[in-house]
From TrEMBL:
Pfam families: Nitro_FeMo-Co. This is NifB/NifX family molybdenum-iron cluster-binding protein. InterPro entries: Di-Nase_FeMo-co_biosynth, DiNase_FeMo-co_biosyn_sf, MTH1175_dom. Residues 116-125 have a biased composition (Basic and acidic residues).
Length: 125
């Protein structure tokens, strides 16, 4: 199973969770069966590239996305690509994955998804 976390900078387990999901420079992907870590550059249209992050990460074989938060539209797009989303990730990528493994991250719902796209709310990164 491949678990993905948006990364604030260069990616990797020690990088911080990027809180602006679509705008992060990289996504860190951990294969939980092999413990292989892969960094996927965000080449989506949010960063001047092509396509959207769910498509990009689907092509990388991602099964699970862990993030601080995201909007309903993004949650639905991930669902269309068969990627399950969990919100509430913070700290390092490694911490976020540990929190997910321990069942401490939530599935998105009407109370914990971003309702707008103004990014004036209090993200940490």
């Amino acid at each position: 199973m491949k678990v993905c976390v948006p990364s604030a900078k260069n990616g990797g387990l020690e990088d911080n969770v990027g809180q602006h999901f679509g705008m992060v420079p990289n996504y860190t992907v951990l294969d939980t069966e092999t413990n292989e870590v892969m960094v996927v550059e965000n080449t989506s249209q949010h960063n001047g590239g092509v396509g959207l992050p769910p498509e990009l990460l689907s092509n990388a074989g991602v099964d699970i996305m862990l993030c601080g938060g995201l909007g309903t539209k993004a949650v639905n797009m991930f669902s269309e690509f068969g990627i399950e989303v969990f919100v509430g990730a913070q700290g390092t990528v490694e911490t976020a994955i540990s929190e997910w493994k321990e069942g401490n991250l939530a599935s998105p719902n009407s109370e914990n998804v971003c309702q707008g796209h103004d990014h004036d709310h209090d993200h940490q990164n």
